[in-house]
């Protein structure tokens, strides 16, 4: 459990995004590019949703926690010469102007399925929910536009 306030408290407001242990999420993480922006999402809470924006400041490299026997993300099957798991470094960019709850995004997704809007195929609702999921630029821009609207 790592909050956006925890990120803001880090030196240079930057930290590694470690502990990803799902192969599909890992592959999405490996495809992240320097300077790319992402939403920071609180998930282990009563109402999950987007709270801020981060940017990728270091592309994928081996996740050190896979080799640390004392770490909860230790993987005894991973080898230093061929690591299974990767991480990226992220830096705080800004808080969103308001909390954007998952329930609101889902409402738009359902509406867009009917009218062909930008969230019609959003992976968050069409595949297994993962800690890392890509967005199209259209999806990212639409969700970002929600911060200007009053909460539903």
TrEMBL record:
It comes from Piaya cayana (Common squirrel cuckoo). It comes from the Eukaryota. Keywords: Nucleus, Phosphoprotein. Residues 2-145 form the EVE domain. GO terms for cellular component: nucleus. It is found in: Nucleus. Specifically binds 5-hydroxymethylcytosine (5hmC), suggesting that it acts as a specific reader of 5hmC. InterPro entries: 5hmC_binding, EVE_domain, PUA-like_sf, THYN1-like_EVE. This is Thymocyte nuclear protein 1.
């Amino acid at each position: 459990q790592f909050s956006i306030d925890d990120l803001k408290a880090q030196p240079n407001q930057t930290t590694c995004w470690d502990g990803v242990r799902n192969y599909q999420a890992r592959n999405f993480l490996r495809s992240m590019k320097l300077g790319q922006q992402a939403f920071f999402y609180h998930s282990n809470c009563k109402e999950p949703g987007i709270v801020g924006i981060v940017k990728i400041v270091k592309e994928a490299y081996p996740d050190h926690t896979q080799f640390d026997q004392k770490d909860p993300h230790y993987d005894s099957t991973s080898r230093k010469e061929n690591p299974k798991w990767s991480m990226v470094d992220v830096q705080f960019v800004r808080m969103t102007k308001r909390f954007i709850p998952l329930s609101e995004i889902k409402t738009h997704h359902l509406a867009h399925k009917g009218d062909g809007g930008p969230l019609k195929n959003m992976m968050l609702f069409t595949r297994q929910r993962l800690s890392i999921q890509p967005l199209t630029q259209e999806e990212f821009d639409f969700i970002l536009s929600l911060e200007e609207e009053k909460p539903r």
